Structure formats: C-alpha cells, structure tokens
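Feature request, filed as a ticket because there's no other form

It would be nice if the structure record came with a short human-readable summary line next to the tokens. Right now we just get the raw output. Example of a typical job, pasted below so the devs can see what we mean:
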Amino acid sequence: MQLAPFGSWKSPITADAIVADSIGLSSIVLDGTDIYWLESRPQEAGRSVIVRRTADGQSEDVTPSGYNVRNRVHEYGGAAYTVVDGCVYFSNITDNCLYIQDLRSPQPEQIRQLTHDKNKRYADLTIDPRNQRLICVQEEHDSTEFEPLNTIVSISLTQPDDVRILVGGCDFYAAPRLSPDGTKLVWLSWNHPNLPWDGTNLQMATISNGYLSAPVPIAGGANETIFQPQWRSDDTLFFISDRTGWGNLYCWHDGNITAVYPLEAEFGLPQWIFGMSTYALVGNRIVCTYTQQGIWQMGLINTLSGHFTKLHVPYTDIANICAIGNLVVCCGASATQTNEIIAIDLLSESREVLKRSNKVKVDPGYLSIPRSIEFPTTDGQTAYAFYYPPTNQDYQPLLGEKPPLLVKSHGGPTAAASNQLSLKTQYWTSRGFAVVDVNYGGSTGYGKAYQHRLDGKWGIVDVDDCTNAARYLVQQGLADANRLAISGGSAGGYTTLAALTFGDTFKAGASYYGVSDLISLAKDTHKFESQYLDRLVAPYATEPDVYRTRSPLYFTQQLSCPIIFFQGLEDKVVPPNQAEMMVDALKAKGIPVEYVTFTDEQHGFRQAANIKRALTDEFAFYARIFGFEPAV
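Raw output as currently delivered:
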C-alpha cells in the first residue's frame, strides 16, 4: 500500500466508467408472462425506453428511435406507460402526446397517435376494456389559466382526441384504479397547500354507461396521507395510510377499514412521482416492503391469518414491486450492489437478475461500506445518516492525517438518503474522502413525527442536522475540521447554501440546481410545489419576512467560503435565476465561485457528458480549495 494524502488516491472508479454503462431502471409492468421496465439512458441524451423480457428469457427494446417515454405531469412525471394484452400505451415527452403500439402486429414499430394537443400532459395510465378507453391523469397547460388544470379523464381507444373529463374540481389527482370487473373507480386527490405526503383523499365512484356516480369518500383527509390504492376483488381494496403516525397497510371491505399488519415502520413513500409501488397482491397474501431506520426489508403478509413472514433478500433498498402468481418482480439495491431488476419465485425464494443499472465491476477493496449512525442535534433531538469511510486497497493515509469530509444533503426535502451502492459516492471515498449522507429532520422513513420536525423550520433543522453530522464525525476523529464540504441538489442545494451562508462549519460547497431565494421560489415555481413552502417555511402572504430571513441570497455578506454551482438552463422547478443571482453576488464580493451550466438539461441531469462533467468539476474544485493534488 502506498502512503498518500487523502484526496490524492488514484481510483479505478472513474467518471467515464460511471456514465459509460449506467442506466436508470424503473416502472416495472407485468403483462401475462412478459415483463416490461423503463430504462433511462444517459448515453442517448437521457432518452427513456421501454424494454420487454419474454418468457424465453430474451430482452428487447420496444420503443422505436424517435420516441422518449416520459411525461412531465407535476413536472416530475412517472407512470408514463402501461401494457395490456400486448398493447403498449405510452406518453412521448417530446410532444406530451399519447400513443398506442401493438406488439402483436406484424409491424410493431408502427405506432398510432391517440392525442395531439401538446399543451396536455398525461400520467398514471389504466385501461378500461369494457368502455374501450384509457383512464388517466391529465394536466392541461393553457396560457389563459393562472396555473395548469388537473383532472382525471377518459380517452377513447378508437377515436383520436376524444378526451372527456371524468373527475375534476381538486388541485391534484393521482392513482385512478379500476375494480377487476370495471364497475368501480377509485382515485386520490388533494388540494393546495398540501402535497401528497401531507394529506390526500381516497374516493370511489361506480361506473354506469361510462359515466361516474357521485364520489364516496373511503379514507384520508387534510392530515392523513393515502398511498397506492390497489384492488384485490370488486369489494376489497388495499391502501397505505399514515393515520397512526406510520405508513401502514389497510384493507377496505364493504365499507369497513381494518389494519392489515400494524408496525412502527413505513410501508409507503412520498409520492413525488406517479406509479410508485411498495407492495403487490398475491392471492390472499401481500408481498410488501417496509423501511425501519432507513433500511428497506421485504416480507409476506397472510391477509386471512395476519401472519407475517420475512423474506430474506440481499437488498436494503427495494421499489417498484409487481407480482403475478408466485412471481414477484421489483428493483433492488444494497450497499454492495447498484440498482437491478430482479425476479423472485415466492415458492423457492430463488432470484434471477434481469437487468443491472451498471455493468462496471468494482473490486471490493475499493468499496466503502456505509454504516448507519445516530448523532445528537439541536434541542436534544437525534438525527440519522449513512457514514462512508475513505476506502482504497492501494493506499493508506499519511500518519495523523484526517480525511476531508463531504456532507450530502438529499433533495425533496421530503425524501430520504439511501444506503444503496452509488458509484458517485464511491468516486469520492475511493479517492480519500469520507462521505456522510444525512437523513435530517424532515426525512421520510422514520415516522410522521420525524418528518414534521421540518415544518416551519426548513433552513434551520436541516442545516443544523447536516452541520451536527459533520461536527460529530470531527469529534469522533473521522474527519478534518478544516476540510469540510457540503453538497446537495434541489432542496439539498438550498440546505447547502443555507449552511454555508448562516454558519461557518463548512469550508466549501456545491449546489446542484439549488434554491438561494425562497421569495423567488414561492413566486416562480411550478404548480405542484407552489405552496410547498407554506408548511416548510410559513404562509408567504402573511409572513414574507421569514422568507427573506431564510434566503441565502440576501445575506451573501456573511459568506466567506467558495461555492460551485451546477444548473440546467431548462429547469422549471428551480429556475436558473436562483443560481445566477447568487453567483453574481459572490463574484461582487470576490469569493471564489464557479458556475457550470447545461443548456439542454432540466431539473436533474440525464445526459452522460453532463453527469461526468459535474462530478469531475466538483472534485477538481475541492482539490483546489483544500490543496491536494488529484491523481491523474
């Protein structure tokens, strides 16, 4: 082993290797014996492609070139396609229109267009075969409206552009789900200022001659979140509710609601995108996933006896669960395995990997294995994080040297850090950085009370928890107090900028499409999050001074450390002016600052070249600031 300063270690985990074979995997759909999923490909400018795996084990692209299977409903999209009896129904992001692709035809590459209005976006597609129509969420962007109009609509499968509103009147909708016999429809709705993890309503209506009866409330409310309604039979419906402070499974049967398996764990997720799935029905059993202390597990619940059986799978992050018969298909990842699509046979518990998100094979000697840590924070509270020590089998540090520490602040802020293998994280640790990924107050997976720690205190609780994570590791002798950096994207970018502006613990930082001015964000963001800050900060109409007080932009005189900014110029969630105002202010003060823009990126980077540049530029920036020579 060579002696070398932290940060200067040479690593086989290069930016080229990370982006060369990396893809995003999501949106699993089962159709008979065929398994479908969505691949997001940075090497194809971020294009999303449907892939089919047939019963004989062969996989092939379904989506022809020229199409990109995504949507931008609520800006974040999700559930952009479905498959029924060999027919694929999908949204094309380039024109927002819906298409039908019949894979049973002699020419499956020939695609029929269902809608033509580019001002309307569609998500959460479900097929109503009895009425020869598609039911989905529609978001209409009309320049004459103050904000987009969200409804649940039906779209004829035989008459193009025959779109009819089935449900309207609320600010947002999701999860329209037909009963097995097609006579009932349930859906979720919510209104400003709520987001779907604050409180939603689950309603049901009967269908007669294609029309809906008056809706009947089933569950939910302004302070109860409902997640993933799913029918088992025409009179039995399952869903997840957080009514006890934990997101647990419930069953509705003939008007009565019962808890399926009460547990101090989270079975659901914050609904940032459409079509999220954490459980699937298998006859009288439920195959489910749940998280405790940030670690996901899998189990089987017998709904007749209430008996729970833990399934032993080598994954600590599990999502996108689907099932048919005894076959379960889902996405899984762990601290040593990047995300992959797996098929599980419930009878034998055997597993088969169908697709991996990254083909790069890394010797275990270069992998940093995270450990969960708890640390004290403000007001006697406890916060949580995943700590990654610097790890490289070829190097050992100089005697007495402590490593630089990179604190990661996740986005959302209603989200959570995961311990799944991230080659981006390993890029840092294999070069001699320690990394800590913080689940600050407000993060999900630790119960509703922990999530609500952030209410009214965004820019305070999250900053304190990230700062105290760094201080804790310094006290433990695991980090150099003079080389502490913080990095985050979106909401995590705001936490980063607030920590750098209102404190002096960190010596450098990186903001990825982060918020610098809460006032501008409150006035200039998209509908889905336009009143998000009412809960996180305060109602802007009555307390605008709080927004100014918490905005780093207005306190740049307190900044004394360098920052690098990364921004997509097509970002509608956090517009570029958020970064540009901060950059200009830092330049005027003479503080080292870099501003890296990508003309063809939105909120989050999808293209391989841009992902690579952001990673290498951030590392080079810290090398200059912290004074070490990166390995060639």
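Something like this underneath would help us a lot:
The chain has a mean pLDDT of 94.
The chain has ten helices and 39 strands.
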